[in-house]
Design goal:
alpha/beta, D-Maltodextrin-Binding Protein, domain 2, nine-stranded mixed sheet, two-stranded antiparallel sheet, rod-shaped, transcription, Transcriptional regulator, LysR family, DNA-binding
C-alpha cells in the first residue's frame, strides 16, 4: 500500500497532540476514521509509529525519527504547490531572452531593470546571440524573446519595434576628420574600415554595405573583430574607421571619437520578437509589460 499526503498530515496532527480524540477534532473527522488512516500509514511503512494504551499515546523511536522528516516533506510540498501556482499565474518562472550588441549597449538594460523591479520572482536567463542566431533560436523555440536587428519574417513570429538608433562614425582620436562634428558617409570612401565579422555581424554588415553602396563606394575592410570591444579597440588603435549604432555613446573608450553622420535618414531598428503562440505565463507577462510600459502608438508590428 502507498501512503498519501493525508496520511502524513494525520500523523503530524496526532504526534503534536498525542491524543487521538483531539487530533480527530482538529482534522474534522472521527476518531475511528483517524485510527484507520494511521493504521494504513504504519502498514505502508512496515513500522509502528505510536505506542497506544487506554491512557496514553506516545511516539515510538521510529515515529520520533519520522516526524521531522514528515514536517519537512509537507513544507516542501507546500512550497512546490505555491511555486506551481505562481508559475501558472506568471508571477514566477524563467524567461530566456536573447540580445545582440546594440540592444545591450542601448536601452535593453533599462527595460530589464524595470521589469525585474516589478517581477522579482521571474528569472531572466540572458544570452548573447547575433541577429541571425536569434532568428534560428526563435523559430526552434530555444529562446522566448529576442532583441535583434530588423524584423523576423515568419507567420509564427510577432515583431515589436523596441528602439531605433541613428548611425554614427567611430574614428581614432588622431584622425584628420575627428574634429568634424557631422560627417557625410561619402567622406569615408577611401578609409580603411573595421567591421564586425560576418559570423557575428551579418545583419549590421548588410545594412552598412547598402548605405555605402548608396553613397557610391564599397568599404575596404581591413579588420573583422567578433565583438564591439574589438571594434572599439581597433578603431582607437588607428586600424581604421567604423560605422556603428548611436548606443556607442553609452560606452567610454580612450582614443575613440564618435561623430554623427549627416544627411542620413536611415536608422538601425531593434525589434523584440517572440512566438505569437505564447504558452508560458511568465513570457506573456513580459510581453505585456513590454507593450504597456515601453509601448507607444504604432510600435506593435505583428504582420
Amino acid at each position: 500500500m502507498r501512503y498519501e499526503m493525508r496520511h502524513l498530515r494525520a500523523f503530524i496532527t496526532v504526534a503534536e497532540s498525542l491524543n487521538f480524540s483531539r487530533a480527530a477534532e482538529r482534522l474534522g473527522t472521527s476518531q475511528p476514521a483517524l485510527s484507520r488512516v494511521i493504521g494504513e500509514l504504519e502498514q505502508a511503512l512496515g513500522v509502528r509509529l505510536f505506542e497506544r494504551t487506554t491512557r496514553s499515546v506516545r511516539l515510538t523511536e521510529a515515529g520520533e525519527v519520522f516526524l521531522p522528516e514528515t514536517r519537512a516533506t509537507l513544507r516542501q510540498a507546500g512550497h512546490a504547490e505555491a511555486l506551481a501556482k505562481q508559475a501558472a499565474a506568471g508571477i514566477s518562472g524563467t524567461i530566456r531572452i536573447a540580445y545582440m550588441d546594440f540592444a545591450i549597449n542601448g536601452r535593453l538594460p533599462e527595460l530589464l531593470k524595470l521589469f525585474a523591479a516589478q517581477h522579482p520572482d521571474i528569472r531572466l536567463d540572458l544570452r548573447f546571440c547575433p541577429t541571425t542566431v536569434q532568428q534560428k533560436a526563435l523559430l526552434e523555440g530555444s529562446v522566448d524573446v529576442g532583441f535583434l536587428i530588423g524584423r523576423l519574417e515568419s507567420d509564427r513570429i510577432e515583431n515589436y519595434r523596441f528602439h531605433e538608433e541613428r548611425y554614427v562614425v567611430l574614428l581614432p582620436s588622431t584622425h584628420r576628420l575627428a574634429h568634424v562634428r557631422e560627417l557625410e558617409l561619402e567622406a569615408l570612401a577611401n578609409e580603411p574600415f573595421v567591421m564586425g565579422s560576418a559570423e557575428f555581424w551579418t545583419a549590421h554588415r548588410e545594412r552598412v554595405f547598402l548605405l555605402c553602396h548608396q553613397a557610391g563606394f564599397f568599404p575596404e575592410i581591413v579588420q573583422e573583430p567578433s565583438t564591439s570591444e574589438g571594434v572599439f579597440g581597433l578603431v582607437a588603435a588607428g586600424a581604421g574607421v567604423s560605422v556603428y549604432a548611436e548606443c556607442a555613446r553609452n560606452l567610454q573608450r580612450r582614443g575613440l571619437v564618435i561623430q554623427n553622420l549627416a544627411n542620413l535618414n536611415q536608422t538601425i531598428p531593434t525589434y523584440a520578437a517572440w512566438d505569437r503562440r505564447l504558452s508560458a505565463p511568465a513570457v506573456r507577462r513580459f510581453v505585456d509589460f513590454l507593450k504597456q510600459v515601453w509601448g507607444r502608438p504604432g510600435a506593435a508590428d505583428g504582420s
